[in-house]
Task: structure prediction
Amino acid sequence: MLSHTDAYNKEYEKIEGMILIRGEAIPDGFYHLASDVIVKHVDGTYLLMQRDIRKHFGGMWEATAGGSALIEKVLLPAPSDNCEKKPESNLKP
Result:
């Protein structure tokens, strides 16, 4: 399934009528919103996740959970609503 994101200019203003498709090159002067979240547990430890071996950088460890803000989403819900790691980590908003 293709992921679609809204296009923005460098001032974070949405460009009406322009949609970006994940995996395709983003034209110069256009941007998309993405977020990363570092999860710190109450005991002071951090969540680390190992990437699926079949993905880009497979087997590597990462400390972030995040992803692109999908089309029609606003800036603040991006980490919890569109978190690519949610299914893999059981993170809940």
